[in-house]
Design a protein that fits this description.
- The protein has helices at residues 2-11, 15-60, 65-78, 111-115; strands at residues 83-89, 99-109, 121-131.
- It is of the alpha+beta class and 135 residues long.
- The protein has one domain (2-131): Pantoate--beta-alanine Ligase, Chain: A,domain 2 (2-Layer Sandwich), CATH 3.30.1300.
- Strands 1-2-3 form a three-stranded antiparallel sheet.
- Helix 2 (15-60) packs antiparallel against helix 3 (65-78).
């Protein structure tokens, strides 16, 4: 009885290593995926806040495109995000709503893919629209 138990234990000795080797890449993939999704979500929130700040400035003051772009860059710089494009559309005098639109774009660099020796960026964009307040 003792010999059969010992031979059974010895025959299953490498199973844990093999199972770990099979599951570990999937665990890494899920971990990096969750991390990168969180970073992309944070970057998207920063772009949305920057667009909102810019459009609010444009909505309460006379349309000054350089001032709006400077405010958007200020918000992005505070969060260490480099916007690739900032588009400000001033209100159209013929539009009864007099809407102001600010769009901010940035390239999100996937960090964990760079660790695995792949290159990748994801273009992100946020747009905010407000009605221009009459002075």
């Amino acid at each position: 009885m003792a010999r059969s138990l010992i031979s059974f234990v010895r025959s299953n000795r490498g199973n844990a290593v093999i199972e770990f080797a099979l599951v570990f890449p999937l665990l890494l993939l899920v971990s990096f995926g969750i991390t990168e999704f969180g970073r992309a979500w944070m970057t998207m929130n920063i772009l949305t806040s920057a667009a909102r700040e810019g459009v609010r400035l444009a909505a309460v003051t006379a349309p000054n495109v350089p001032a709006v772009e400077a405010r958007v860059r200020e918000v992005c710089d505070a969060a260490n995000v480099d916007p690739t494009a900032i588009a400000v559309v001033p209100p159209d005098p013929m539009d009864p709503d007099r809407r102001v639109t600010v769009t901010v774009q940035a390239d999100f660099e996937v960090f964990s893919v760079r660790i695995l020796d792949f290159r990748g960026t994801i273009p992100l964009s946020a747009t905010s629209v407000m009605r221009h307040e009459s002075l």
